[in-house]
Amino acid sequence: MPDLASLVTVPALLASVFFFIAGSVGLVRMPDTLTRIHALTKADNIALGLLVVALLPQVGSIADAAKIVAVWIVVQISSGAAAQLMGEVALAERDAASSGPDQRGMAGGRDA
Amino acid sequence: MMTAFDAGLGVLLVLAAVRVVATSDVRAAASGFLAYGMILALAWVRLESVDVALTEIAVGSGLTTIVILRAIAHVPSPPSSSTAGAKAAVGLLCACVTLGLSAVILGLPEPASSIAADVAMNMPATGLGNPITGVLMVFRALDTVLETIVVLLALIGVWALVPQERLAGRPATPGTGRSPEPVVFLARALVPIGLVVGAYQVWAGADVPGGKFQGAAVLAAMGLLLMMAGIVKAPAATDVKLRALLLVGPILFLAVGIAGWPLAGSFLGYPPGFEKPVIIVVEIASTISIGLALVMLVLGPPGRASS
Fold it and tell me: At what angle do helices B212-228 and B181-204 cross, to 10 degrees?
């Protein structure tokens, strides 16, 4: 019985760690805010989903399983909304940076 | 295996702390502080202090970081990285405190003197299942009364920062005028869940880790989210209803404390046989007061709303 559970847990956990690392590397290596958010949210969502899949066979009761799934849902809601929010701010800043220098006739402005 | 994990946690904790102090960017320092709090909470969990971990995440890390970030946004020119001399002095002071604490902890008698056995022996009399709540609400109730009052005093301190005529104004909610779409979505999707979680933490605190401070922080966060989404307006500091609710917790706690003299023979003694119901009523009243006080603390000085 524990072997069957491990058969699901171990590969899912390893895959989860891989995606978490990929997301973190993306966060550090990507060139600008939007792509960084993209890397982080996409990879981390998959990683978290895999983590939930890995943990579910290990829990002792339906209630514990429900709690893990509930945590997953709440993280999905909040991380998705936070990413959208940061994306909006990043877009607004980029627009301000690209249109700002032209409007004010400033030389040597940042080009986006 | 767990030793390696704990060692890694300790190293991470020190790295996060160094990052907070070493960076010259105040925003990076603030977000570093948030990360530091999360790692610290994990360390508390490893020490089996789940109550402390919950408080660390909700109040110590979460709400405090928002207050710091808002303070950064409102300070006209963020204090530029302080001089090397000042930093060195602060670092030296902190190092002395750390060394002193380490010396004290390493010098503790083995086994450390503990009143845990006394608490465990007397828990049945409280009608509670969570020894932390037992200590907070029964054995060291005086400390907890003072804590609820300290939160109130902090709020009075914030309100005292503005001149009298601005006190009637509403504090500014975080963000810029228009509520962004994701925040509105978050308020609609997360608040119902958060209310249940917050209320559960208060209720379950009697028997499992949780309690009024943790629950109040979650409820306060939900309140702030509603305000940021423009669904609820921030109350003005002069609002009589707000002030009454801010006072209900400390006053009820003190009233129960004074009633303890005739009913149980001592200040903060609970009437025998009614310990648990009285404690739960006090916890709920304190949650309301602490939660609202936390909301108003995060919102900051009143009269700053631009509209």
Answer: 160
